[in-house]
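Preliminary data (for renewal application), dihydroflavine-adenine dinucleotide complex.
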Amino acid sequence: MSLSRTLLLRASRSRWLAEQLRRRRFARRAVRRFMPGEDADAALDAAAELRAAGMGTVLTQLGERTTRREEAEAVREHYLGLLDALGRRGLSADLSVKPTHLGLDVDRAVCERSLHRLAARAGEIGSRVWIDMEEAPYVDATLELFRRVRAEHEAVGICLQTYLRRTPADVEALLPLGPAIRLVKGAYAEPAEVAYPRKADTDRAFLALAERLLERAGEGGALPVFGTHDLGLVGRIRERAGALGLSREAWEVHMLYGIRAAEQRALTGSGVTVRVLVSYGANWFPWYMRRLAERPANLWFVARSLLPAP
Ligand code: FDA
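Predicted structure:
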């Protein structure tokens, strides 16, 4: 892992830095590149624009590692309100939620109940709840949450990270559930015992797992989603899906708001189902540091934000 990536990921855990930057106008200006605004209305406006361009949306309120039960319950209530707001505005979008935001560290039962309620409500309105995958020590608990919620609701999916050495085994163990799986490369700093230190290995694992999931989708036994901006990878996945004769609805590509926007539109225009993950909220610091770590050249945009707005 590069030094800049390591430093940015380490910084992402600093509460002091988070407090400092959250108050700085230049930092808020830089963050706007990756999110339409801090409130849910801005995210819903973005969903309407994406729909007009033929794309779907996945909404996520930024936040993680909640330390109080009331806070975790407020997050659930926020998402339930968001699902209602989607109905009021005649929009449709999936949700993406972090278990630690819903209270996994505080009380696992509260987190699980919240996921059940969200998946039930999402199912009623034709949406889906995606469970994000956080740092490696949370993987077992997150998979267990997914299994329990999936046992009662169809409208739930799980994110798996291809940098983890364990993920091929996790995929095989989940396949009998007919799961919706969103593959991503992985965004955290993990030790070499659990995650590939070399990006090339992560990329290779992504393609191998993508092929496995596409084959399974061909048999009607999975909904594979590829959460990546790696267009070479998407191209290979697309070829494989074509060779298997998969329909447009059988697999999806998800990308982040503000990253490769033109390519998102081009892919949509060429017949791929694309959803854009739109993040919003005031607690953007750790998430934003991870976006910088993925592409340290993004620091240039931060530097430019220090200049007064034109
Ligand atoms: P890669 O890093 O190889 O990037 C490919 C190209 O995309 C780069 O060359 C660059 O051009 C562009 N790019 C990538 N990141 C960029 C950035 N930040 N800014 C500008 N350009 C960029 N992770 C996780 O651990 N748990 C999770 O739950 C999720 N959830 C999730 C959902 C969705 C929809 C996406 C797209 C991603 C995630 N991630 C995630 C993050 C994921 O693990 C990964 O860190 C990023 O997607 C970056 O990796 P890529 O696959 O894009 O490839």
